[in-house]
Amino acid sequence: EIVLTQSPGTLSLSPGERATLSCRASQSLTSSYLNWYQLHPGQAPRLLIYGASNRASGVPDRFSGSGSGTDFTLTINSLAPEDFAVYFCQYYGASPTWTFGRGTKVEIK
Amino acid sequence: QVRLQESGPGLVKPSGTLSLACDVSGGSLSSDNKWSWVRQPPGKGLEWIGEIHHSGTTSYNPSLNSRVTISVDKSKRQFSLRLSSVTAADTAVYLCARVAGTPRPFSIHSYYYMDVWGKGTTVTVSS
Question: Which chain B residue is nearest to residue A100, measuring alpha carbons?
């Protein structure tokens, strides 16, 4: 079973700063199946990045994804007020079909 | 625009059965997508529960497989989750989601992701 470890658990930044979030896998992944989501409390999760580096429809270009193998990164350039949220990575694999990381909370410093 | 809305009891007794529905509006359950359930226990990460295709084909998380049933009712435009023999560990926010795919360039394979989600419903297991 694949385990996704996200770090840091919490990232304290100011608006306008860059956020770099890590998602590390317990074994090498097919990057095409690595996705990132944003979650605000009480709201529906939002797909940000699919296939490690493809922005979903309507996602601002300050969000970017990169990585391969076991190390993947979500970068948010110039944090906007609405970007303070929790971010999850997700992998589409064999069993279980979907695996999630535990999330990184990006909070206002 | 497809929208999903979870519904069901917010409180379930231990050893009972949790039953939730996800209403699908603005789109068809019969489209070539899968429909998934995910949960988030308090203070923890997301856990995939299982999914269903409109044909009835299902896939479940092995950790819950013996207790989970997901079904689809196209006439009601909804898919449902039943989780039996619940304990306090099943207390969570339960979310439904649509699984979609996009063809990958120069590949017979597709990208897969959950592109539409409900806001979730809180279920507490307690006597």
Answer: B46
Contacts of A44 in chain B (CB under 8 A): 4, 95, 116-120
Residues in chain A: 109
Please indicate if any CB of chain B lies within 8 Å of the CB of A58: no
* Cβ-based neighbour number of residue A2 at 10 Å: 15
Rounded Cα distance, A49 and A21, in Å:
13
Q: Could you tell me the pLDDT band of residue B107, with boundaries at 50, 70 and 90? A: confident
Q: Give me chain A's average pLDDT, please.
A: 95
Cα three-residue angle A106-B1-B5, rounded to 5 degrees: 65
In degrees and rounded to multiples of 5, residue B66 shows phi and psi of: -75, -15
pLDDT (tens digit, 9 = 90+) per residue, B81-99? Answer: 999 999 999 999 999 999 9
Mutate to test the interface with B, among A97, A99, A102, A104 (most CBs of B within 10 A): A97
The answer to whether the Cβ–Cβ distance between A45 and B95 falls below 8 Å is yes
**Token pair for A62:** 């300050």
pLDDT (average), residues A41-57? 95
Say whether A92 and B118 touch across the interface (CB within 8 A).
no
Choose the closest CB to A88 out of B46, B97, B116.
B46
Section A17-44 average pLDDT: 94
